[in-house]
Design a protein that fits this description.
Elements (H helix, E strand, L loop, with lengths): L14 H8 L3 H8 L3 H9 L6 H11 L18 H10 L6 H18 L1
Helix pairs in contact: 2-3, 2-4, 5-6
C-alpha cells in the first residue's frame, strides 16, 4: 500500500463516522485490516495517503461496500433530489461545477425517462 502523504484529513470519506456508528475503535479496525492502530490513525488523519488498497481494506473491515465510505452513515445508499445529488457530486475533489451540472442533467434525464 502507498506511503504517500496528504496535506490534511481526507475529505468526503466517512470512515471515522462509520466506525463510530458501529462502536469500533482504531484498534478494532486495525486488527481486522492487519495493521497497527497507529497506522489507522495516520491514515484517517491524512498523515498517510489513503489509496485504493487501503479503502478496500477499510470497507472489508467495516463490512460495507466501498461506495459506502463516501457517504454519511445512515443514508442506506439513498440520495434524493437535485440538491442532494449535486452536493454528493461536489464532494468529488477536482470535479468542476460545470461537470456537476452535466452529470445532474444526465441523471435527471435518466430518471425522467424511467418514470
Amino acid at each position: 500500500m502507498a506511503n504517500t502523504k496528504t496535506a490534511s484529513e481526507p475529505k468526503g470519506i466517512f470512515i471515522r463516522e462509520l466506525m463510530e456508528a458501529r462502536g469500533l475503535k482504531n484498534k478494532d479496525v486495525a486488527e481486522a485490516i492487519g495493521t497497527s492502530d497507529v497506522n489507522v490513525s495516520r491514515l484517517l488523519s491524512g498523515q498517510r495517503g489513503l489509496d485504493l488498497d487501503w479503502l478496500h481494506a477499510f470497507a472489508r473491515a467495516l463490512e460495507v461496500p466501498i461506495w459506502e465510505l463516501f457517504q454519511p452513515p445512515g443514508r442506506n445508499g439513498k440520495v434524493s433530489g437535485e440538491a442532494e445529488v449535486k452536493a454528493l457530486l461536489k464532494r468529488i475533489e477536482g470535479l468542476p461545477d460545470e461537470a456537476v451540472s452535466h452529470v445532474w442533467r444526465l441523471i435527471d434525464g435518466y430518471v425522467s425517462d424511467a418514470e
